[in-house]
Amino acid sequence: MKHKKSIAGIIGIILGVVIAFLIPTPDGLTHAGMIVLASLVTANIFWIFNVIPSFATGLLMLSSWVALGAVKFEVSFAIFSSTTMWIIIGGLGLGAAATKTGLIKRIALKIMTYFPANFRGQTLALFTAGTIVAPMIPSAHPKAAMSTPIAKGISNALGYKEHDKGSSGIFLAAMWGFFVTEASFLSATAQNYAFKGLIPASAQKVLSWGNWFVMMIPWTIIILVGGYFLLKLLFKPKDDKPISKEFISKQLTELGPMSRDEKITAAVILVSIIFWILESAVNIPAAVTALIGVSVLVACKVLTPDDFKNRLSWSTIIFIGTVMALGNVMQSAGLTTWLRTVLQPVISPIIGNIYITVIALPIIIYLCKFVVVSLISTGTLITIGLLPFFSTMSFSPAIIAIIVTTSVNVWLLSYMNAPFLTGGAAVNDSMVSRSAMAKSSIGYMLINIVGLLVCVPLWQVMGIA
């Protein structure tokens, strides 16, 4: 429909006005809570239909709370002075340097030289390279844009035709390794920090870089092993004999010797990851580590002011900040208490048992993805819906952030996953078929639930489940 965005925008504004000013305030809810609820309804309609850019919708939402007297400015915009926002900025800066210098491409290609040049070998190579690279770049789109052209070169060298089984499998191996494994590391994507920022401060402390990694070890193993056999079952060509790895060696030769900027970037990222792992021991916040790392890269002229302007997605940073503000504001306006009462009959059975939660919640998220396109928006909506129940859960809300992170990454239909669109565009949509996308996504959806179930005993040992 030609005017779909405009119609959705008008409906969203009308609903917001009706909720805020025309509907009587229910018992147990203040007028400030009604304003926050109204703005949330309007914002979600704007996000779902992409009426205006997502970050602009978020800024309007925060501003409306202040303009209409729901909360003060310091409360509405408090998230922008938090450590979470600064680690996102610092992490994206480190990732920009790794991409700019060619370090990430060199690491990926070097790893591939150690594996046979056939479907099975290069699938394992892409899985391994992606998993190693994942925590270094906290943004899915650069990794998708960088990894799929490498996969295209592999596919061509192996003689696969466009959109056939082999080509589709190699493309999906690249996305599986470089994108799906983002859930294994806190620093692998900015959305991990966004979901972490929505849960209570006490639960956020549980999700340090090291704890997140440990919590996700069983899931990571299941995802990698299950993913490898899934792609092998669905897409492995009949003739899978190894060929020469000349195409990989050629690309490495074209990169030349490791440059000064690559060496500096590698050292800074390695030190940063070590300090993130030892955050509680050294008592240096992860955000400070990231910002020091970026400052070193600037001082060494690896990054320039233009890089900060052009290589960091500031619209994404602002959008993440606006959605993270929802948690504190909803509590401040009394909306969480009211929602807990209203939603308790529906939510309580889902969160009453950890095993039921890790099965039912992913399925709910999968269904939401048919309507809400944005990964961050989907995760935000689900987390906000559960926010009133965090204090009554028998397990840590940190687990909710983990489940949301792993479950929003589905690609059953092409519009559901923007990074997959980026990866496809990087190779002119010449590799993977739509049916291959759907089959692999269904496989991931099932493997994800199995992986989460396997994590539960570990979470119980850790005292968070």
From TrEMBL:
Keywords: Membrane, Transmembrane, Transmembrane helix. Belongs to the SLC13A/DASS transporter (TC 2.A.47) family. DIT1 subfamily. This is Di-and tricarboxylate transporter. The keyword Membrane applies. GO terms for cellular component: membrane. GO terms for molecular function: transmembrane transporter activity. The chain crosses the membrane at residues 7-25, 31-52, 59-79, 85-103, 170-189, 209-231, 262-278, 312-330, 342-363, 370-391, 397-421, 442-462. It is a multi-pass membrane protein. It is found in: Membrane. The keyword Aminoacyl-tRNA synthetase does not apply.
